[in-house]
Q: What sequence folds into this?
């Protein structure tokens, strides 16, 4: 496990280029299995979650050419549909996309329960219920699933919750099914639109992605395509929060501002000096930050993936801020680490109350998951003195070149 060592208190200046979205890339890569030819993805972030998916595809005998410029070529024409090694599957959550993709292509998949950050129970019952509605039978033996279908038939599927993973997995399972599938109460996140466009680029017939009703007309064959991963809205938000916390003037480029509207609204409410342009934002030093209240919601609401990151900014804002986390049951572990640095925080059920402003002091803390780690990086950049963040590998799972990017704007940060 790596550690990050940060000497805080240095004002940051300069430009950050945002990478391709982790949560799009980790869906698009397993989706390559559905293609009957080969695909090229561009703007793929160089993060360890992508390394793990590459390992899984290689395990299935796919051919992969991953280039330094962020392009990845995948040919799944001759893959072997076998049970993926459990150690690989457990490395991340997005392994579950192999379920939908292999089921869609081969009508058979054998896989164990996926891994991922421990931020809640994270069941996959909505995915499995949808596979069943499409005609699959599922044998569950402890942690292992065998999913089979003589044929997959289009049908209407209502999701009990607008789950990102289930929406994408059901698009994968339905894209080659017989007839039309309608997913009601579908997730509307930008990553869903990115995946639907990808499949349509291969010749799929999907409409409605980005709304609550997605319609998929099954096709027999999916041809090669060239597809770009959208900019990472959570990485964008993370650097916006860093800029608000300790920046003098920071420009964040290669973004889609509409994807971070909920955060930008809250930053403006906090008094952050933010100028939004077509594909970038400029954030200048703000004199005083005000407290704010947020409640996490599905897109376009405030993203759960940014609440842990924003918590570190709330610590230095004047007054009492609150966070209500409605998506996951266990996404406040970062707050205990912030308290070690001096933050004044109370946690009660799904709500945390943060009272500021507090001057944070550098100390040794633990990244308990990816976004908790990102929040601690921000706290360490603000704090007086040296902070050591243990388990930094969590952070490397989702932030491309975070050390280099932060150094380029003046941070004193080192990975050891
Ligand atoms: N849920 C169920 N049953 C299911 C599926 C989901 O109860 O079958 C529950 C989950 O337990 C959770 C909620 O529904 O409480 C939301 O889950 P969702 O399926 O939408 O999330 P996910 O697909 O597991 C993706 C991202 C997460 C992000 C969420 C919400 C990936 C690989 N992960 O997870 O990203 O928080 O959507 O936007 O795309 C992160 O990047 O740090 C991260 C955790």
A:
């Amino acid at each position: 496990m790596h550690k990050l060592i940060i000497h805080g208190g240095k004002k940051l200046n300069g430009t950050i280029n945002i990478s391709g979205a982790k949560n799009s890339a980790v869906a698009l890569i397993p989706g390559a299995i559905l293609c009957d030819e080969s695909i090229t993805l561009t703007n793929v972030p160089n993060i360890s979650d992508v390394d793990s998916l590459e390992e899984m595809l290689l395990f299935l005998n796919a051919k992969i050419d991953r280039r330094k410029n962020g392009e990845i070529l995948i040919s799944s024409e001759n893959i072997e549909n076998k049970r993926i090694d459990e150690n690989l599957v457990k490395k991340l959550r997005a392994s579950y996309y192999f379920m939908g993709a292999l089921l869609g292509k081969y009508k058979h998949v054998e896989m164990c329960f996926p891994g991922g950050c421990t931020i809640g129970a994270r069941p996959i019952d909505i995915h499995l219920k949808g596979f069943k509605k499409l005609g699959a039978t599922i044998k569950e033996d402890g942690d292992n699933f065998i999913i089979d279908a003589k044929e997959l038939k289009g049908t209407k599927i209502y999701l009990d919750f607008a789950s990102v993973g289930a929406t994408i997995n059901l698009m994968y399972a339905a894209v080659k099914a017989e007839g039309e599938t309608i997913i009601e109460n579908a997730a509307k996140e930008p990553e869903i639109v990115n995946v639907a466009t990808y499949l349509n680029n291969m010749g799929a017939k999907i409409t409605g992605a980005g709304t609550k009703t997605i319609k998929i007309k099954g096709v027999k064959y999916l041809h090669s395509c060239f597809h770009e991963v959208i900019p990472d809205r959570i990485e964008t938000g993370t650097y916006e929060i860093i800029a608000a916390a300790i920046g003098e003037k920071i420009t964040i480029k290669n973004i889609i501002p509409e994807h971070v509207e909920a955060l930008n609204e809250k930053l403006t409410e906090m008094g952050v000096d933010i100028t939004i342009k077509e594909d970038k934002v400029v954030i200048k030093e703000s004199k005083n930050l005000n407290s704010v209240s947020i409640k996490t919601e599905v897109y376009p609401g405030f993203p759960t993936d940014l609440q842990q990151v924003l918590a570190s900014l709330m610590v230095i804002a004047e007054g009492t801020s609150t966070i209500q986390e409605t998506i996951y049951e266990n996404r406040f572990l970062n707050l205990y680490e912030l308290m070690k640095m001096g933050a004044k925080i109370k946690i009660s059920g799904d709500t945390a109350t943060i009272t500021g402003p507090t001057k944070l002091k550098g100390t040794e803390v633990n990244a308990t998951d990816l976004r908790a780690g990102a929040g601690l990086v921000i706290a360490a950049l603000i704090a007086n003195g040296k902070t050591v963040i243990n388990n930094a590998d969590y952070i490397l799972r989702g932030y491309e070149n975070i050390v280099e990017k932060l150094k380029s704007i003046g941070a004193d940060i080192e990975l050891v």
